[in-house]
């Protein structure tokens, strides 16, 4: 296998290629257009300035963290529902 500039890559088999392809797919970005309340955008811009990052990076992080919190809450709720069903309290 060769790099784009033509140098040889040694010792990397198909497993490595599959992993690289999966990682690239997970990191792929997609452009979207959102309408965000001005007050929220201004708040995020202030946070970005304080942290020394772009407001776009701050928004991406906030979205990522928010999704993680939602997933955690859904998993907790699903676990709670399973405990309720199994305990006989669902009657």
Can you describe what's shown?
- With 91 residues, the protein is mainly alpha-helical.
- The protein has one domain (14-86).
- Helix content is 66%, strand content 0%.
- It is built from three helices and no strands.
- The protein has helices at 14-27, 38-51, 55-86.
- It is flat, with a radius of gyration of 22 Å.
Could you give a quick summary of the protein structure above?
66% of the residues lie in helices and 0% in strands. The chain has 91 residues and is mostly helical. The N and C termini lie far apart (63 Å).
For the structure shown, list the relevant keywords.
flat; 3 helices; 91 residues; mainly alpha; 66% helix; single chain
Secondary structure blueprint with pairings:
Layout: H1 14-27, H2 38-51, H3 55-86
SSE ordering: HHH
Low-pLDDT stretches are none
Report the average pLDDT across residues.
Answer: 84
Sum up the overall morphology in one term: flat
Q: What is the number of strand segments?
A: 0
Distance between the termini: 63 Å
Structural class category: mainly alpha
Give the DSSP E fraction (strand runs of 2 or more residues).
under 5%
Oligomeric state of the chains? single chain
Number of helices: 3
Q: Give the biggest sheet.
A: none
The radius of gyration computed from the alpha-carbon positions, rounded to a whole number of angstroms, is 22 Å
Give the domain tally.
1
């Amino acid at each position: 296998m060769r790099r784009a500039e033509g140098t040889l890559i040694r010792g990397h088999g198909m497993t490595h290629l599959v992993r690289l392809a999966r990682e690239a797919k997970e990191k792929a970005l997609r452009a979207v257009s959102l309408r965000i309340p001005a007050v929220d955008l201004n708040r995020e811009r202030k946070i970005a300035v304080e942290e020394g990052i772009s407001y776009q990076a701050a928004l991406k992080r906030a979205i990522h963290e928010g999704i993680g919190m939602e997933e955690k809450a859904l998993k907790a709720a699903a676990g709670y529902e399973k405990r309720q069903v199994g305990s006989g309290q669902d009657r």
